[in-house]
Amino acid sequence: MRCMSSKILLIEDEPSLRKNLELLLTMERYAVTTAADGVDGLRYLQEERFDLVITDVMMGEVSGFDVLEHISTHHPDTPVILFTGYGTNDLRQEALRKGAYRCIPKPFDVEDFLTVVRKALS
Length: 122
Fold this sequence. Notes:
Layout: E1 7-11, H1 15-27, E2 31-35, H2 38-47, E3 52-56, H3 64-74, E4 80-84, H4 89-97, E5 102-105, H5 110-121
Helix pairs in contact: 2-3
């Protein structure tokens, strides 16, 4: 059993997906902090350190790419997983080029998602 030492920041603007992912990650024994948008996500990143950040790409005034840029500058050792409903190949390539650990298209398989999370934290 994994101890709750890995801290994950989950940034997702869609409430039901945010809640479901929070429950899933908590059941896997991760300590999860959630943010409803990129603005709140950046605020959390200024207040504490996380072992992994998982963020949607398309959000309000602060996108997942904005969050990725902030992390690349201020916390370069923190892996970032982006997920998007607009999963074009160009967008995924751009995410990887900008430093994302992985860019996952929505909808995604839960087991595949958890495998990516485990690998990002290893």
